[in-house]
Design goal:
Length: 288
């Protein structure tokens, strides 16, 4: 124990002497002139150590540059990921804003149509959004966000401000299925508003096209003629569609000597692939 204490005491004495010597040298260094002995020793030591300093700098430079490169690369990747996330978020917001604007404009057009003289008399309206589209090319039904609770029933006609869309074929509590005008099973009694020619409208040979058939050759059809719903009433038989709803325009009409009827194609006025909202026409009940 005495030997350890002596060693500890020696170390403390040496440390104290070194500290005192350092303080003395620092004091002398700052008090002596620039050409003093300590300054000369410092300058000589720096000159002797300069080659070692340069060598160490050259050896350390590649490692320092490599560290800086990888550190910058990691920072750039992190910053790039953050910027990408920000761009994706802003893009999503822009799409949402654009979609909301389009939906608002579409609803405004529907409301303007409802308040216009073109809206069929004797009908109430249920304006609703489209919630599903045809799952396949050969299926022509869409889903809407209104059903029994909104007063919608099967065989209610469906329109937009652009014209006839189709017919309600299935109804649930808060939703319904609409069969589009382009479905092969749908038939509509139609009228050429320009010439008065009457016929039966059905789906066409191509996707999204319509055919106007059963038009007698004695009647007139011309390209560009406006086709609307006929809205007939024969005794107890009444058309499902009100009179005068726009369907489309004659895009081509021809006849041959052996045919009894015109062969006419109609371009629909409604863009079925871009439907956002529709108007279901609900027939008003007679007041008691």
């Amino acid at each position: 124990m005495s030997s350890r204490s002596a060693n500890a005491l020696k170390r403390r004495i040496v440390a104290g002497v070194l500290v005192l010597l350092s303080l003395v040298l620092i004091t002398i260094y700052f008090r002596e002139p620039a050409g003093g002995g300590l300054h000369s020793i410092q300058s000589g030591g720096a000159t002797v150590l300069r080659p070692f300093e340069v060598g160490a700098e050259r050896i350390a430079r590649p490692f320092r540059d490599a560290y800086g490169y990888f550190a910058g690369l990691i920072h750039a990747k992190s910053e790039n990921a953050a910027l990408r996330a920000q761009v994706d978020k802003l893009t999503q917001l822009a799409i949402q804003n654009s979609t909301a604007t389009d939906e608002a404009n579409d609803l405004r057009r529907q409301l303007n149509y409802i308040s216009s003289p073109r809206f069929p008399k004797g009908y109430d309206q249920v304006t609703t959004s489209v919630i599903s589209r045809p799952p396949g090319e050969f299926q022509q039904q869409i889903g809407i966000a209104a059903g029994y609770t909104s007063g919608i029933r099967s065989n209610d006609p469906v329109v937009t401000a652009d014209g006839l869309v189709g017919l309600v074929t299935q109804v649930a509590h808060d939703s319904a299925e609409v069969t589009l005008l382009t479905d092969p099973n749908l038939r509509v009694a139609a009228l050429d508003r320009d010439s008065g020619a009457a016929g039966m409208l059905s789906h066409g040979s191509g996707r999204g096209t319509l055919t106007l058939g059963r038009v007698l050759k004695s009647q007139m059809l011309s390209e560009g003629d406006t086709i609307v719903t006929q809205g007939f009433k024969l005794r107890d038989l009444t058309s499902l569609y009100p009179e005068g709803i726009l369907i489309g325009y004659v895009s081509g009409a021809s006849q041959s000597e052996i045919d009894l009827y015109w062969q006419a194609q109609v371009s629909p006025s409604v863009h079925f692939d871009a439907l956002r909202s529709v108007i279901v026409l609900v027939k008003k009940r007679p007041s008691p």
